[in-house]
Every structure is written in C-alpha cells, then in structure tokens.
Amino acid sequence: MLAVLARQAFQQMLRYRTQTALAVLGVAIGVANIIMLISITDLGKRQSTGLLRDFGSYAIMVTPYFDFSGAGRGGNAMAVAAYIPSETVEIVRAVPEIQAAAGFLLLSGHASYNGVSCVTTIAGIQPQFAELVAYKPVSGRWLSAADEAGAARVCCLGDSVARQLFGGADPVGKQIDVKGQQLMVIALMEHKGRVGLEDFDNRVIVPLSTAQQLYGFSGLNAVLANYRPEVAEQDALSAVRAALTRLLKPGESLDESYSVFAMDEARKLLDDMLGIFRAVLTGIASIAMLVAGIGIMNVMLIRVLQRRKEIGVRRAVGATPWLIALQFLLEAVVQALAGAVLGLALGIFGVNLYCHYAKWQPFISPLTLLLAVGYSVGVGLLFGAYPALRAARLDPIAGLRQDI
Fold first, then answer.
1. Three-class secondary structure assignment of 153-179
2. Does residue 300 contact residue 379 with C-beta atoms inside 8 Å?
C-alpha cells in the first residue's frame, strides 16, 4: 500500500512541477543552512581548540586587564588597558614556578616586495616563543637571541603573506619592505590556518625589539609562559600575580591592571562561546526550515483544491478518509525528502567551498546530516498534516460536482 501511495506521490510531483520545485527548493535551502552553519561552527571550534592546544598543557597568559562584566549585560569583553610594560616578561620569567616565558606584540602594517604589497600583521615575538608553541619553520631558521638583542632586521613569513608576495617561490634570503625598512626573510613558517576572519598565516614575524623600534612602541600585548609540570596550576598563577605587584604604581590594583589566566580556562571559555554561537545559528537555520514548511503547506492546500474531483472519485470507489489523508501526507513528506537530498548536496558543497577558502580540512559530522534530514522529514509531517486533514474531510459529493 505504501509503495503504491509513494509512486502516486512521485507522479503528482511531476504533474505539478512548478509547485513542487518551489517547495523542494525551500526545504533544500533550509537543510543546506543547517548543515553549513553547524558544520562551520564545529570546524571553527576544532581549528580554535587546535591552535590553543599548541600552547601546551602548562601555559598561562598575562595580558592587559580585561573587563568581562559587560558580557553579562549583553556587552563585549573590554580591554581596560591597551598594553603592558615590556619589563613584564622579565618579571614573569624570574618567577621560580615558571619554566619559560616570551612577550609578543601584534601590530597592523604593510609588507611589500618588488612592487607587490599586502596588508598583514607585524608580530614582534621573542625567540623563547618557539619553546612555548608548536610553531616551526618549514624552511630557514627561527629567530635567535642575537636577533632579539641587536634588533636585527630579519623576519619569518607566514604561509599566506609569503604566497601574496612571492607566489610559490621560496622567500628565504629575499628582502621585504616594512615601515620603510628592509627586512631579510630568514624563514617560511608552517601553515596554521584561519579562525573566522583571522588568518594566522598572514603574519610577518620579527624580533620583539625590532617591532618596537619600527613602531616606536615599548609595550607588549601579552606574555605567554609555561609553568613547571610539577607545579600546580593555581600555585603558578598565584606566584605570577604576586610577582606582578612589583610593577604596580601607588594606588593601582593588580586585578585592574593585569589579567592572568591559564590557557585551559581560555579553552573552556571558547567552548562556551562557540556553544552559544552554535545554538543561535541553529535557531536561525530552523527559521528557514519553518518558512520552507509553510511553503509545503501552501502547496499542498492548493493541491487539495485542484484535486477535489479526484478526491471525490476515490472516495466514491471506496477510499477511506484515512487513505486520502495518508496520500497527501506522504506527498508532503516526499517533497521534504527531495528537498533534503538537494539540501545535503548544497550544504556539503558549501562547507567544502568555505574550507577551501579558509584552508581548513573539511569535516561534516554524520549526526549533522541526520539532524538536517530528520528535521526536513519532521517539517514535511508537521506542515503536511493540515492539508491532509482538509483532503480527508472533503465532502465527496461536493467534489464530484465540481470540475477543477
């Protein structure tokens, strides 16, 4: 019985091609939205946590004080201070619980080579940074202590900026222009990828002292440190906070000047934020599916009117109201399934296209695909129920009297 009804459903879809196409397209867009929004959020989480994982299990960060209280009122976290003093890194490095520390400074700038220019981030980094983060050159060498001490005019290029300036050629040994100064390229760094709009490969890495000289700026954005494995995390954080009190001026409070936190806390905060973001995006995609469902309901209501005589004939030859309702309900579900198949193709294509642009490894969870298909079937059942009920309740005599 179901096979016969399904075959009839396909025949009716072919009979009313324009109506079917519009209903299927609406569902397809909704399914593609669900797949793309959830998958891209998941990929962003995987990429972000992967980058944070590079900092290791014993990493802590010292930054200017951030006021997170605005987030609870619908605002954003706000940095009260723009930078921290350069001596902060030496204070942190001298803490007995700390194994290694490095300061860094991120500044916007331009890099150019032979008339080709690009907007990039100039990252002033101390050589010890290599001990803290899994970030290595694929060719050339990393910054040395001598480079830092002498504010050497050398740099390491991220993958993106290297491709913009040199195409596929090896940039090591070439000189680029930054802030009117010639910098020798000593390394090409490994690919790290993009998180949102931030391209971690679009960076020109120079010694911290060089960046400070180029920009006439003596501060730091942050200090990254590793505490010793045998030290408890809270003990390391407390020791760093205690050491930082020596940098405070009279009347200043540590909690209003510095933020000291473990990278594990940053990972948890990121997970919470991305979870909220995913829920919001899923809600937005759900609205698209509801609109598609309304489209299916409108199409099926029109078909009930167009097929009143057919319904009357079926009832006259013995079809029960239940079979009439099942037929129309199955037609709605078949349209939703057709839209789901098209939406799967569009969603998978969209995710792969985004990953190609972001240079991420594509991944779509099977659960996301099942959720999208299940949601589309549910929409077909929900919004097909009312037209099916209308068809089942149609007076067969009134239907036979009209030729629609």
1. CEEEECHHHHHHHHCCCCCCCCEEEEC
2. no
Q: Is 197's pLDDT higher than 90? A: no
DSSP secondary structure string, 114-163? TTEEEEEEEEEE-TTHHHHS---EEEE----HHHHHTT-SEEEE-HHHHH
Residue 28, CA distances (Å) to 311, 345, 347 in order: 29, 9, 9
User: pLDDT by residue (tens digit) across 288-341?
Assistant: 788 888 888 888 888 888 778 877 777 777 778 888 888 888 888 888 899 999
Q: Are 255 and 44 in contact (CB under 8 A)?
A: no
Q: Which helix (H) or strand (E) holds 108?
A: strand 98-113
At 254, phi and psi to the nearest 5? Answer: -60, -40
Nearest C-alpha neighbor of 259 from the set 52, 55, 62: 62
In degrees and rounded to multiples of 5, residue 122 shows phi and psi of -90, 115
Q: State both tokens at 374.
A: 């299940």
85 three-state secondary structure:
coil
Integer angstrom CA distances of residue 198 from 44, 61, 193:
11, 20, 9
Q: Comparing 67-71, 138-142, 216-220, which segment has the lowest mean pLDDT? A: 67-71
Indicate if the pLDDT at residue 23 is higher than 70.
Answer: yes
Give CA torsion, residues 355, 360, 362, 368, to 10 deg.
-80
DSSP, collapsed to helix, strand or coil, labels residue 30 as helix
Domain residue limits, the chain: 2-50+270-401, 82-256
* Residue 176 to residue 120: CA distance in whole angstroms: 13
CA distance 49 to 52: 5
Lookup: tokens for 293: 């469902």
CB-CB neighbours of 119 under 10 Å: 11
Contact 214, 179 (CB under 8 A): yes
Predicted TM-score (pTM) of the model is 0.65
Give the number of C-alpha atoms closer than 13 A to the C-alpha of residue 375, restricted to the C-beta side.
27
Find, among 299, 294, 323, the residue nearest to 310 by Cα. 323
Q: Are 365 and 39 in contact (CB under 8 A)?
A: yes
Task: Please state whether 56 falls in left (phi above 0), alpha (psi between -120 and 50) or beta.
Answer: left
Query: DSSP 3-state assignment of 203?
Result: strand
- Dihedral of the CA atoms 213, 219, 224, 228 (nearest 10)? 100
Residue in this structure with the two tokens 């200090």, named with its chain if needed: 223
